[in-house]
Amino acid sequence: AMDTDLSSQDRKDLDKFIKFFALKTVQVIVQARLGEKICTRSSSSPTGSDWFNLAIKDIPEVTHEAKKALAGQLPAVGRSMCVEISLKTSEGDSMELEIWCLEMNEKCDKEIKVSYTVYNRLSLLLKSLLAITRVTPAYRLSRKQGHEYVILYRIYFGEVQLSGLGEGFQTVRVGTVGTPVGTITLSCAYRINLAFMSTRQFERTPPIMGIIIDHFVDRPYPSSSPMHPCNYRAGEDNGAVYPSVEDSQEVCTTSFSTSPPSQCVFTVTKAHFQTPPPVVTDTLKVPVLGLAFSHQLSSSRLSYQPAALGVGSADMGYPVLFAGGLNAAHPHQLIGPGKEGGVPPVPSQPAHGTQADQERMCTPLDGVHYSAATPSSSEDTETVSNSSEGKCSSPHDLLETIFIRKVGAFVNKPINQVTMANLDIPFAMFAPKNVELEDNDPMVNPPESPETESPLQGSLHSEGSSGSSTGNTHDDFVMIDFKPAFSKDDILPMDLGTFYREFQNPPQLSSLSIDIGAQSMAEDLDSLPEKLAVHEKNVKEFDAFVETLQ
Amino acid sequence: PLSSRCCARPGAAPAMNCRAEVLEVSVEGRQVEEAMLAVLHTVLLHRSTGKFHYKKEGTYSIGTVGTQDVDCDFIDFAYVRVSSEELDRALRKAVGEFKDALRSSGSDGMGQISLEFYQKKKSRWPFSDECIPWELWTIKVNVVNLANEQERQICREKVGEKLCEKIINIVEVMNRHEYLPKMPTQSEVDNVFDTSLKDVQPYLYKISYQITDSLGTSVTTTMRRLIKDTLAL
Questions:
Q1: Among partner residues A46, A128, A198, which is closest to B175 by beta-carbon distance?
Q2: Domain count, chain B
């Protein structure tokens, strides 16, 4: 493609847009296969680092893999960037589910404005990608991963390889954007056999995979790049440190011009961020809104399995820390409800147990950040996170302060002593009791188990214990004073049992007694024809009235 | 009409160069809200930008749009929406009214909800501003009644699959890169975008709905017949 018509500045901008578009595309796809609900916050003030004006988090490992695959090149004709999504059972069998392809063809659009139209259309394309990643069959599978299987991703650059998808695979086009150097196209080819396999079926009988025999042959193409689980654990890989994304990242401060309307000025500046080492998460909101979870829990249909407690090779460790590289302007990258399940034993060191060095296991992104689960709490989580932001501690400590969610109203005891009462969330007064009770109940928290101290814990502890509404946080034994919300009554205090017995046999309603009922019914019936006649007469009025409502 | 910004009568035919898309879904009563929200949110995801901040010399910067996943309770389906509580509330209100209207119209349960994007064109006094629609999405809804739990379960899955198709259709339309209003200057921005929300900026839109019964007759006839029928003994 001839690009002599393109100014060098435009060319540079275009290359940059394509590069970051490719990186964001990978992020969206992998994040959509993590098995979690993704939530990011809108921000009315531009922060300068949100490419394409969209809040898409950057998982450093994923960016690292993408950059490795691209090796400094950009998608071009014959050189496509592909993200392969596959499924691997706990027995080690794997199957390709989808191939997402970012391709470039030769059809150029010379007239299009790079800094403006192309940029906005790339933004639109990312939005389409967000939408489409939720509608292919692999999405539902990935939401149920963890116990029987995990979802892995692999990025490669070069020729698209679709043969692993089996026969009759389908393609969905996400969209295209024309540029002066070619047309960018984004599409997904996905296996359809699974479309007929409901995920329930799959969970119940793992051997069903064996029926589709041809999928379990050795991979025809030896992986030129290793497979990765969509989830990952920081602190793994012998302390491999990923360069934080922003180190050499160029930041785009988007500035558009409307004067004169036909011209657009786009300024891009380079900025270097000073970021903490990758291990630290920037938003360790440990005082998890336990109540918010319960709320999410009850409305979520999805059942997750406990984070792989010893499921063979799928030894999922925890918690996933979204390590570094994120600047403080984005404190609200929420990863939605994590997996329900039993309390995993808090590891004293980061859990290992992956099969290959490269194969970081998919772990559920257990609740590192929670915010905005309920509308009114979104503001409040800010205050809570302040104490933890920027604190850097070893992976061990961080792991232990992660709050793991659990099914049920009595949420898992947080390791730190935060109570709900001091958090300004709705129904806060109903929540803390459960949390505190668990803390003090020796059955749940045997006094002899030591609580490890970490700087994070310490600060959170002090946050939590101030403003605690009930004073009984330090008794060893606690009488469980069951105060269900509905029977709360200051005027007539009674316990649940009494309440129930008392209202179990209410008196009959008078209108239901036969005599009175029959009489008024007869009267009503008699007067009906009259009433109807009146209404019929006034039909025109009614019609006119209804017209005015339309 | 749920937004009285414009003078155009709801249900009026769109202007000549207004692109119109129609989607049809058959759902169970309790699935109406989620299905409508899924479609409306998907459209608005593509038709919302970050807040504009105008600076001197006619330049402007754009805020950031966050997104979040929404799981449906009555449909095996999940979708992505813009992270804006205000926008979500507005859509829920509209869809709630539509659902109530559908319900009270009787057992036939057919109707349609429309999402129209328009531009305002200022007119001189004494003429009021013109609203010029440039994109109209219509979702035709047919409410079905199911007999038992097994049918309901199948419906959950089927409607989920249908909605996946609808999302793909919507994305196809969006990808055509057809007419979009030109980016406005500061003085014109309220003629193109809804700037009333604090965190995102959708194009100016309005939502309206119509209920029809199976014979296609108007609401009045239906109501009259309904009153008569229930009282007939």
A1: A128
A2: 1
